[in-house]
Amino acid sequence: MLIEPSPHGLYCMAGDFHIDPWQPVGRAVITHAHGDHARPGSASYLAAKCGVPILQVRLGPEARIEGLDYGETRELNGVKVSLHPAGHVLGSAQVRIESQGEVWVVTGDYKLDPDPTCDPFEPVRCHTLVTESTFGLPIYRWSTPREIFDGIDAWWRANAAAGRASVLFGYAFGKAQRILASVDASIGPIVVHGAVDVLNRGYRECGVKLPETRMAGELGKRGRGTSRQENEDFGGALVVAPPSAQNSPWLKRFGDYSDAFASGWMAIRGARRRKAVDQGFVLSDHADWPGLNRAIEATQAQRVYVTHGHIAPLVQWLNERGIDAHAMKTEFEGEAGAEEAGA
Ligand SMILES: [Zn+2]
Ligand SMILES: [Zn+2]
């Protein structure tokens, strides 16, 4: 086993490093900066170069992070390590590990659908694959991004025509920027929550094109004291905010608004109702069931370890298809964890 689960996270003994450890370790290789993968406290970090600015914000200014270009090889204790685009969020990487002719790939989170805010998923051939399975059930099948964003645009346009703001909740890192880069910015002004704005700066620094956005405070100030004026300012606006902003006083300034949630979990019956929003858009930064299968097949791996999600059904499915598949348990599993991480 080139990689094994350990109390601190996935461990490569030959190279003496951990991948996405959940406890502080000596050397951490990080697939991406979502909270369930990048944790502070390790002595040193290795991550894809384009993800370093955001990772630095998340881990703190004192964190020692070394950036690696996609495809560039680094030797750790004689083990060759390289990072390859995972298509999940800016700077997301699969980790390729080679030792004595044996190749393993750890996918981290990934998706195959096009996303203008990050490099596309690159299939990497390997003997053994460790794949995530957040949406590892046949019920999960995404529409094309074009169809999904046409739906979001139509909802925004209808609200704008009625003079209402459109408040769209999506995870602040990754989902929010994908929304901003994909909607039709000619419909109206776009307002972002501060938590989204901080991350937008990291994206823009890395050369990702996002439309012009404003902070709620910039628009709101003008109309302070006359609530009708404020409503006029925000009517027609798209407001992109993290899920944590739901039911917060921050939303009051938008007056009469329609709200919606963008997440892969919106595919589950009743999810929109449980979130108590007007609309649910099934938009995920993870591979759906056909995507997981395509990705696994493309690696030509003979052995697959399944982690991070619906493990048992995918393991069984792969075994039935002649692939030597097993579960690889990590500490944080299940819907709640994945939802936190912007699924
Ligand atoms: Zn993630
Ligand atoms: Zn994750």
Tell me briefly what this model is.
27% of the residues lie in helices and 25% in strands. With 343 residues, the chain is an alpha/beta fold.
Fill in the keyword field for this structure.
343 residues, 10 helices, binds zinc ion, seven-stranded mixed sheet, Metallo-beta-lactamase, Chain A, Rossmann fold, six-stranded mixed sheet, 19 strands
Order of helices and strands: EEEEEHEEEEEEHEHEHEHHEEHEHEHEH
Cα separation of the termini = 29 Å
Helix content: 25-40%
Mean pLDDT: 92
Which spans have pLDDT < 50 for at least 5 consecutive residues?
222-231, 333-340
CATH architecture of the largest domain: 4-Layer Sandwich
Looking at CATH, the homologous superfamily of the largest domain is Ribonuclease Z/Hydroxyacylglutathione hydrolase-like
Taking strands numbered 1, 2, ... along the chain, how are they ordered across the largest sheet?
A: 7-8-9-10-11-18-19
Structure ligands:
zinc ion
- Report Rg: 21 Å
Give the CA-based shape: globular
Largest sheet descriptor: 7 strands, mixed
Work out the strand percent: 15-25%
Q: What would you call the structural class?
A: alpha/beta
Q: State the domain count.
A: 2
Describe this structure in words.
The chain folds into two domains: 4-140 and 285-340, Metallo-beta-lactamase, Chain A (4-Layer Sandwich), CATH 3.60.15; 145-281, Rossmann fold. Strands 7-8-9-10-11-18-19 form a seven-stranded mixed beta sheet, with helices on one face. Strands 1-2-3-4-5-6 form a six-stranded mixed beta sheet, covered by helices on one side. It has 343 residues and is α/β, with parallel strands linked by helices. The chain has helices at residues 52-59, 145-161, 175-182, 194-205, 216-222, 227-234, 271-275, 289-299, 311-320, 335-340, and strands at 4-6, 9-12, 17-19, 27-29, 44-48, 65-68, 73-76, 79-85, 93-99, 102-106, 128-133, 165-169, 190-192, 214-215, 238-241, 257-262, 279-281, 303-309, 324-327. It is globular. It contains ten helices and 19 strands. It binds zinc ion (2 copies). The site of one zinc ion (ZN) has 6 residues, from loops.
